């Protein structure tokens, strides 16, 4: 199996790495958090100019025509930079749903706007008490003339407070946990009957609680009762993407900690000279490399057409990412001491984001159960 990047992929990696190094240091990130949306519109425009917002889309939609490897490259760099902008919400989730479930006309209308940075999307799916079960949908969609109206509530909608349009799952038939009867609807975030309450999450990003009261849908994407398989596939792709982001986070936590151990003095010598602390830093590196291997595995399998193979693979990666991320983050904090959890020092911010990623789309226990029920990887 070839793990080498192509020339185009190396160019992409160099461009994104340079952008993060030059334009996204910790002080610039703190400044972006104070802006109206909690992130930088100017940086979003820069992403669009570099072609990052069209990364997974076809060229006819203003895209790069990239696949999971290109997404991995960008997300790992974004992890290192602790990027605040809604790339996951708009491009990976929102754009992915339009790409997988939208008609040709819907793709032509929406994806070029996303690629140009002119349209923000958010995926409104999670509901209270759903506990990572993608089939647990209680929001409803009912016919109203030639269209649909939505009722219900969605929780922790990533960047839902600033989105222009919402991609909302709602039940058109069946009971709460039925796999059939779930549709995906495009809703204008400013439409009558839509109310949003935005808030900052612990990792510095944004989310919203969204309520629908006879809110009109602009369109339905795909079969009004058969959206779940497409939703599951896009979520699998998103899991592979955040696994790559987590590797970037862990790499920075390890590097910062090793540098700190070289300079922090105790008993007249650098704490990095103490063998027991050297062993702990090596354990961090081992956990990081295990996570990197599984993130690469998830990237390779995210495009697999076999649902069982794909789901089992990304779940196995999510288990390892959760375990490695927690270990690396806890060690980074403990080896720094109290300074690590101050707002002025970046290690704590990396660990907060890592903790959020561990929970997003299912924690390690949830995905370990999926792997055990689906059988071994090999």
Write the layout of secondary structure elements.
Elements: H1 7-23, H2 26-33, H3 41-49, H4 68-81, H5 87-101, H6 104-115, E1 121-124, E2 140-144, E3 147-158, E4 165-171, E5 182-188, E6 194-200, E7 206-216, E8 219-221, H7 228-263, E9 265-266, E10 269-270, H8 275-301, H9 307-336, H10 346-359, H11 364-374
Parallel strand pairs: 1-4
Antiparallel strand pairs: 2-3, 3-7, 4-5, 5-8, 6-7, 9-10
Helix pairs in contact: 1-4, 4-7, 5-6, 5-7, 7-8, 7-9, 7-10, 8-9, 9-10, 9-11
What are the defining features of this structure?
globular; 4-stranded antiparallel beta sheet; Butyryl-CoA Dehydrogenase, subunit A, domain 3; Butyryl-Coa Dehydrogenase, subunit A, domain 1; alpha+beta; 16% strand; Butyryl-CoA Dehydrogenase, subunit A, domain 2; 378 residues
Give me the strand/helix succession. Answer: HHHHHHEEEEEEEEHEEHHHH
**In what range is the share of β-strand residues?**
15-25%
Q: Report the CATH architecture of the largest domain.
A: Up-down Bundle
The fourth-level CATH homologous superfamily of the largest domain is Butyryl-CoA Dehydrogenase, subunit A, domain 3
Roughly how many Å is the radius of gyration? 21 Å
Overall 3D form: globular
Distance between the termini: 15 Å
* Tally of separate domains: 3
Question: So what's the CATH class of the largest domain?
Answer: Mainly Alpha
- The percent of residues in helical segments reads 40-55%
**Number of alpha- plus pi-helical segments:** 11
What class do helices, strands and sheet pairing give?
alpha+beta
Please tell me the overall pLDDT. Answer: 95
State the strand order across the main sheet.
Answer: 1-4-5-8
Number of strands: 10
CATH topology of the largest domain: Butyryl-CoA Dehydrogenase, subunit A, domain 3
